[in-house]
Amino acid sequence: MSTAETTPAAPPAVVWSGPGQIRRLATAIALGEAAGVLVPVVVIALMARISTEAMYVRSLYVPLALLFAALQVGFDVSNQVAASVSRGAGRPHDVLPVAASMARIGLAVWGTVSVALIVAAPGLASLLSVPDASAGDFVAFTRWAALANLIFFPTVLLSSSLRGFGRPRSAAAVVLTGAIVEVGGVAILGFGTDLGVFALPVAIGAGGVAALTVGAVQVYRSGLWRARAPMVWRPEAVGKLTSVGLPVAMSFVIMAVANAGLLWALGPFGSDVVSGYSAAGALQNLLIVPASALGSATAIVLNQLRGAGRPGDGPAVLRAGIGLTAAVYAVLAAAIWLGREPLSQLLAGEAAVSSQTVTFLTIVGLTYFCLGLNVMTLLLIEQIGGGVIALVLNVPYFGGMVVLGSYLARSQHDPSALYWTIAVLNICGMLIVPFVTWRHVRRISRAEAR
């Protein structure tokens, strides 16, 4: 093996060149993130057409899917931050060893959570008031899905290494591969066999294997692989996980708990309301992809500049990111609200379920402009050392949604009261979160410039 294959060339120096730098990076990141988020949307649509029971069981699994997302994002963001700083500092040889060190920690954490869910599945069915006719399928589905998700963990680190180093297209290829195989597997197995909802864990496992293979190839082709280097323990991996990943993961845990609380609050209104809300939630997850991509792209550029010793460019980078986000979500929020009826029919299938999705989007749709700005700035602050700040900001948002929204919905015997609570919280967040992020960016820029 030649030196050129094992030692990546020194990357060019990082400089701030304007909003186009964020836009180009965000576009490539959004491609991968859209695939990852679109999968649940397509899966829910497929499940609705496989059977009502399949869609109901998949809807109940949403909080547990968010729990795995919490683990994923904790390691993903920590490794992405480490890779982007290494890129700015001109140290490509540090990228993979740090990722491999995180993998050792993640294997223990991810495995423990999976085993815990496997054991706790019957208790979760009781907690969520799953009818006896569906409880067996829910328990079995939860256990198989927990095992299948184990396969995806290594791909998280491979794709975040590529993304943080400035190879978002390579990272997107990893995610796209897993998404295509998973959706294709659900379609083929769900309609071509009697597996029903159990087609999904099989498809998840197949997608994980395919994505892992592509990820390993992309990392090797990028020049980040060096012989024996990944086996060297890097203690800074622990620091990144505790300072960046842990607060981010805790925010997602809060989100998972809040989602479970909302399903509990909507339970008495029937399965049509639960399924309709879950369909709207899946659409919302897709809708925030641009904000997520813009937040990550802005953070990557800012962290690369910090690694290159140029923290003073931070405020200019933030202004550009916020401006791009506002422009995108002015269009998206209006489009979602105006197209809420055909979108709901496409997602939910049955008229009784789609009408509930329409109700949600009618109330919340226009506030997606606010949500986009909130998500973008929260993701940015999480990736530049403000994870605890983001966690503190998330608590009243999700706490208010569950406590106040659930109380109003149940006391008024109307799920719309919960949806109005979500809309108001989105607006309140826009008045607070971007301002807090701006202050944090200015503070670290001044401190590191000294």
From TrEMBL:
Domain of life: Bacteria
Chain segments annotated as transmembrane: 25-48, 98-121, 141-159, 171-192, 198-220, 241-266, 286-305, 317-338, 358-381, 388-410, 416-436
Main localization, broad class: membrane
Keywords attached to this entry: Cell membrane, Membrane, Transmembrane, Transmembrane helix, Transport
Membrane topology: Multi-pass membrane protein
Record's subcellular location: Cell membrane
Name the record gives this protein: MATE family efflux transporter
Natural source organism: Paractinoplanes bogorensis
